[in-house]
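Progress against Task 2.4 (sequence-to-structure conversion) is shown through the following example record, which the project officer requested during the mid-term review.
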Amino acid sequence: MLRTDDGHIIRLEDYRPTDFAIHHVEMLVRLVEGAAEVVTDITLERRPETSETAPLVLDGDELVLTGLHLNGEPVTAEQFDASPDQLTVRDLPARGRFVLRVETRLSPETNTQLMGLYRSNGVWCTQCEAEGFRRLTYFLDRPDVLATYRVRLEADRASAPVLLANGNPMESGELDGGRHFAVWDDPHPKPSYLFALVAGDLDPLEDRFTTASGRDVKLVIFTEKGLSHRATYAMDALKRSMVWDERRFGREYDLDVFNIVAISDFNMGAMENKGLNVFNHKYVLLDPDTATDGDYAGVETVIAHEYFHNWTGNRITCRDWFQLCLKEGLTVYRDQEFSADERSRPVKRISSVHGLKAQQFPEDQGPLQHPVRPTRYREINNFYTATVYEKGAELVRMIETILGAENFRSGMDLYFERHDGEAATIEDFLRCFGEAGDTDLSQFALWYHQAGTPTLTITEQYDGGQLTLILEQDLAKGAAGTGTHPFHMPIRFGLVSRAGEDLAIEPVAGEAEIEGDVIHLTTSRAELVFEVGGERPLVSILRDFSAPVTLRHDQPREARLALAALDPNPFGRWRVLTDLTGDMLRSASLSETEGRGATYDPAVIEALCRSASDQALEPALRALMVTLPGEPEIARLIGSEIDPEAIHRARRGALRALAEAGGPEFERLRASLSDGSAPFSADAASAGRRALRAALLPAVAIAQTSAAPLFAEFEQASNMTDRLSAISALVQLFPGSDETQSALAAFYRRFESDALVLDKWFTLQATAPSDGSVEAMERLRQHPKFTLGNPNRARALIGGFASGNQRGFNRADGAGYRWVAEQLGELDRLNPQTAARLATAFRSWRSFDAPRRAAAEAALRDLASRNDLSRDLSDILTRTLG
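Structure tokens generated for the chain above:
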């Protein structure tokens, strides 16, 4: 049974503490085939301000109550009311602690929502964030209710030799009938969303770690049988994360063991349960034959992210779900910094900003817009968004830019010291930095409260050796209806000579404060005047993307082209070249839409070729610079009345222009970057060389009259990165060729038993830009290896098509919209969370031309009219149509 009620609006302004505090939880979980019995002893106490007659109201979700006791005595029928979603208990002690025993019976095997306790490939596991614990037992299922937990698990030893829960192992032993037990104790108070248990037949990969203070910690990664050898890189990433957090933030791990479990059916990437992280196996299992360099980087990032949550999310949690960015945005910032230190800081920063613009900017500018800290929601699961995570991280980064590294670290130290063991708020967080940096952050706090992407406009005026910069910021009111007041916007900048050197020039007049290379813009408009002498410098603005804004820079074309070659700031160089390329592709797409032949700026094409060959830049950076913006990015630059077919033609034309200008040099470069017969290495330098080879391949391949060379490259590939690069080019450039079909068939034969690689096979075909893509999707939907029940597989096919195939999804006859809507309706009956997240692909439907708008709206309204939709999907559809 799904929650199909509309739900009521939860508002931040209505927050108040619970009437009762929970101090300790003792749980007994008996696992048997087809069922689970849960006995929970909850130690509660009425808060002093609570009425002595107020009842206890506990949350539930599809629960069956089998027993209820108060201090060891049965609770009479007159004392309580129970429904699947709520338990109300009356006549409780007026003062002092008491113990309420709640007994429930669950069916993990039939729990397709993958929330609460469920079974995945024979393994019992839990997912309790955000409100999954109430699917195990009736509880005050809120993040501000912190308690210690002691858990006893019982199961058949043959089917579940491994029994895990949060905290430290206390005891274990045998029971009658071939069963056994294990007891786990977590001494750190935590909210129920961090509760976890896992039971099954799993393979361990073990290691140890010694903390900075000399404590010995046992590390174990559990995988499905026979796969533990593919977790070695994840273990290495975990140990590096632990070292980094000690060095960068002074944070040691605080338990005797740290366990990770990788499972195949999981709604999210991973979950930071205290001492027992549960992972989607996509972010644990790796080897060169089955995983790309992107997979390796993703595992490193997610392993670090969940470990860093031990302090930013677990030891200090969020008071309520409105404060979700307090743990997620902060921890994304921390994992980004870790990856930057482990690999390449410029490349990591560019990758993060590229993801922000691809995911968060459309969210910020569409019907699903909300502030980084929302003030109301109907379904909290729908607020695990790019705005909370990625934009939330940008806000933390801006605090560091404003305060400087030393004061930022002092603020973090104060935050850990003051709020350890508490459920905190954004105000608590900002107060620590304000005190540490002796800075008023009240205006900066608007970034948390005002939704939308502000526009930063820079105008240059040059006259007789004097350069004037006019800076203006503007924020339009969007779907969230929040304020539009000026932000405190830190803008990193530089004035660059024609020799490519930063000039040390101070302003002689100005209306904005400057500290070092950062302009602090706090008003709607400000001017800065610089005496620069005879030669006009190049203005490098918004370096390292120091604020999440849309930049409009009134800058001469020749200056932009010069910066694309000379800017000493790597991010600045990438940004200006990407902007130039985007402008060129936008113009070409509009020409295609209007029936005119597209043209391509030869100077921009030359700049792309020059960047690809620039030996002064690391290969990974060159790969990012030479990669053309994707079709969704070009659509965002156009903004309205979008024609996906025109964009597709324009981008392929630009690829041909690039091939004509740089083809022979690209082939030479690719040959020089080959590792030959050297063994695969996942280090950053090797990955960077493979990345540049892959980035150059489309331009090399599109110039060829046959798909045969690409097919040969696919067959000769010795690792998944090169193999996927070749087959992706085949699918994108020669979708109907015999070579492409042969490659797909060979790929399938080789990897049909590997679920993670098979996901790549489905996604490859879902993103193929063929005229018959919708019909191809339906054939793949009927494939024996496809199942809606596995979130990874559903995301690979449905998500790959809706988000990665602009031509197919946005087909003019509406077939793509109708097909996706039909799949969402069916998926919603199984897994509302996954259905709701995939439905966000419709967020930009109003941006397309009239026929497509009408078709998308019809598909959305037809789906929204169903009377059996979950609250998760209904909420997304209501806001998307609203």
